Amino acid sequence: MPELSEVETVRRVLLPRVQKRKIIEAQIQDTQVVASPSPGQLLDRVQGQVIADFTRRGKFLRLLFDSGDYLTVHLRMTGCLIVEPHAAPTEKHMRIRFLLDDGSELRYEDVRRLGKVWFTGSGERDVSGAGELGIEPFDGLLTAPYLRCRCGRSKKPVKSMLLDQTIVAGIGNIYSDEILFAAGIRPDKHCDALSEDEFERLAAAIPERLAFFIEKNAITLEEYTLSKGREYRNTPYLQVYGKGGNACPACGAALQRAVIGGRSSVFCPHCQK
Prior knowledge:
By secondary structure, this protein is α+β, with helices and mostly antiparallel strands. It has helices at 4-18, 39-46, 144-151, 158-163, 173-183, 196-216, 221-226; strands at 23-28, 34-36, 51-57, 60-65, 70-74, 79-85, 94-100, 104-110, 116-120, 256-260, 263-267.
C-alpha cells in the first residue's frame, strides 16, 4: 500500500499539472470506488469546478476547489492517479476520469478497486475518515511529550502505535519498521515500557525517516507518466523492511521477523532493544 512518502510523491508530481485547471466533465467507469455522495451527484458537483490546490493529509489526497468544496482520494493498495492527454489510450483498470480544460485528463486507476473517492461540499461533514487522523509527521507538535501523552500508558506494542492513524497520520507497515530501526526500539516493546530517551528518539526518527524516503522517491513527471504512477523508488534504501534473515546493515546480526498485532515486522535483535 502506498504510504505517506509515496502519496506525497504523487501530490508533488501532479500538482503543477492540475492546479488552476477547470474540470469540464467527469466520467465514472466503475461506481464501486465512489464512496460518497452517489455517483450521479459526484458527477454533477465536480463539473465546472476549478482546482485551487492538491494537498495531502496522512495517506489521503485532496483536490481543493476554489468554491471551497473538495474531492478526497484514498489509493489503498493499488490505486493511482495520473494525468494523460485526452487522446491517450485508456487503461483496463481506469475507474474515473476528469476531463480538464487544457485537453488533459486526471485519471484514477485501480486494479483491485479498493481505493475510494469522496466529494465534500463547503460546510458539509467530511465522511472520508480524514478528520479522525492524528497529527502530521512533520508537524512541530510531534514531540516526545506528545507521544508519551497519547500512548505512554498503553500496553500496545510500539509498532501498533505507529500504525494507529489517530496518533500520527500516514505511517504504514514499511516505514514503521524503518522508523523503529532508526530509533533502536524493538517493534514488540510495549509503549508503557518506553523510556524518556526512547520517546525522544522515536519523535526524531519519524519525520527524519519519512523525509528521507520522500527525497528518495522523487521522480520526474515524465518518469511518473511512463510508469503509470506505479513506480516507487524506496526499495534500495530500505534497511530492514522485508529483509528477515538478512544481515543487519548496522551490526551484521541476522534480522528477525515477527508478527505483531497481525502485521509482519522485521527488526535487529541486537540494535533494537
